[in-house]
Amino acid sequence: MTQKSHAIGKEKRRVILATMVGTTIEWYDFFIYAICAGLVFSTEFFGALGGDALILSFATVGISFLFRPLGAVIAGHLGDRLGRRAMLILTLVLMGGATVLMGLVPSTAAIGVAAPIILLMLRILQGLSAGGEWGGAALLAVEHAPTTRRGFFGSFPQIGVPIGLLLANGVLAVVTAVTTAEQFLAWGWRIPFLLSAVLIGIGTVIRVRVAESPVFEEVRQSREQSGLPIVPLFKHHWKLVLLGALVFAANNAAGYMTTGGYVQSYSTEVLGMASSPVLIAVMFAAIAWLCTTLLGGWLSDRIGRLRTYKIGFMFQLAWMFPFFALINAANFWLLMLALVLFSVGLGLSYGPQSALYAEMYPTKVRYSGAAISYALGAVLGGAFAPTIAQALQSSTGNVHTVGMYLAVLTVIGLAATFLIKDHSGRTLGDAPEPEHEPVPERT
Prior knowledge:
Keywords: Cell membrane, Membrane, Transmembrane, Transmembrane helix, Transport
CATH class: Mainly Alpha
Helix content: over 70%
Number of helices: 21
Oligomer: single chain
Subcellular location: Cell membrane
InterPro entries: MFS (IPR011701), MFS_dom (IPR020846), MFS_trans_sf (IPR036259), Sugar_transporter_CS (IPR005829)
GO molecular function, one term: transmembrane transporter activity
Number of domains: 1
CATH superfamily: MFS general substrate transporter like domains
Domain Major facilitator superfamily (MFS) profile: 15-425
Largest sheet: none
Number of strands: 0
Strand content: under 5%
């Protein structure tokens, strides 16, 4: 009995590591582009195209999000048919490969308009990959978890985002510190992109060793898989898909103030702060986001997924305007304080997401449902959040209009949580239909 228990524990630890490390690598790749959109690409790739180069550069961050739903549909279909693990490996390789190639693309000065076009194509490939990555990682973690710890287990693929942000900002902070501004724009920015080749190898080795989800294996052995999962998903669960997307949109839009590069760009280009201290402040925020995401997952196992979400959204809403007021001080310590406290609401409304989505859908359509809700939420929330924020700030000259925009999305996300039933603790092998009675929230 002891040996069996130890073996099960070892496998669960391997799953946690695989989902966390793989997601970290995926989002390191994604964030490197998002951050460089404000620091590099606006001048080196899009400046010669005319118009507002910064807005155009941020728009390429958002355009990739439009391809996330397609990536989610493809990966969801294959994930519900072939399994979670195969999709995790495929999406990791696609994301990392695109990132490495970005580091090799010549600038517009060297090859003309072909440079931004190639960069955009590779960014779209990243969008397709990101659309399928999260659903597989989240479900693998939650479907391996003990019933009473799904929220906590599911928070580990979630912390891949702040760890990826931490890693991306850390590498860029080092590179900007050891190069001059001219060297960084000429070749230094390419180093973080090329480093992804090493990370792909590490992540692939870890993910190959992970066992398939036991819940999915039960469905596969019973031959109850849906031939085309997206059809029953939208026929029976379209309201859940929409509500899940609205909940994530509120969190994602706020998160992309830092992960999408807007705060970094605003602090350096408008407020005149140096790049290195801004990146360091974002790194501390990423650490806070990591901790509060784990706290959100843990808390959701005790008080319910939706109560945790509501607490997170209310904190996010309350801090929205003080957040931008402190940033406007153009002081390193106040910037760090603003970002760290902003991360509290982000973490509490992000940690429970894997478990919430997994418990919302039946096994036969779970990957498709989780991935598509996530991808649509990313389109509605983070896709053009940096672009919209930049446009609002540029047109009004007032950064608090950005706070108003984010506050509206937060209220919408908060309202959506009141329309979703909390199914915490339900058996994942027999997930409830939307019309069933919810499990009462825990007190």
